[in-house]
Structure prediction request, 224 residues.
Amino acid sequence: MKYVSKRTEIDAIRFDGENVEDIAHFLGSQVPTIEDGYLMLQLQGGEIGVAKGHYIVRDCAGTIGYCRADPFQECYEPVEEQTAEAVPNSGALKIMQERTRQMEREGFTADHDKGHAPGVMAQAAGCYIGDALLEAQLTAEQREKTHITRGLAPMGWPWADEWWKPTPGDPIRQLVKAGALIAAEIDRLLEEKKMGELVQEATDTLDGQPLVNNKDLKECGDEA
Prediction:
C-alpha cells in the first residue's frame, strides 16, 4: 500500500503477526521468517525483528526499512485502499517484484538510472516486448531460425550483449522484465521533471534580481 506524508510518498506494509506471504511479495527479494512472534527481516545494517503492528517500508530509491507503528501513523496516511498485495499473482505485482530485484540485487537504483540517456530503458523494454510478440507468432520450427533460441541480443538492444537476458518459452517473464524497465524509465522521467521544476522555481525567484548587491559592492570599494 502507498502512504503519503506532507513531504514524500513511500510504500509500506504492516506486519499483523501472520501476513508473512504478503510481506514476501512486498519485499520481492527475500522471504522473512517468524521467530518468537517477531518477523525477522534482513536489512542493509543486518537482521532485525519486526514486532506485530509495526511497518516495513520501501522508499523511492527501493531501500527497505522498518518503522514503529506510532511514529509511522503520525507521519503517514494511506493514499490507496486497493493494492497489488491484494492480488498476489497479478502482473503489476510481478513487475514491482522484478523492479525491486533489479534495484537490490543488480544495483540499478534510481541514482544509477539517472546516468541513462533519455528513452534508453524504454528502448530496452521494447526489445523484450518484441521478443515476446515474435515468439508468440512463430512456430517452434520458425523460432529455431531466429535469434530467440540462440540467446542473441536483437537489433535495437541498447547495451552490451551480456546484459541481454531473455527467457525463451516464457513470454510472461519477458513482459515482466519489460514492465520493470518501463517503470524505471517513468521514475527517471518523474525525477527529471521534478528537478526541472526546482530549477525553474529557483530561476523565477532570481529573475530580475542582481547577482551582486550594488550597495554592498560600493561599500567594499570604499573600504578598500
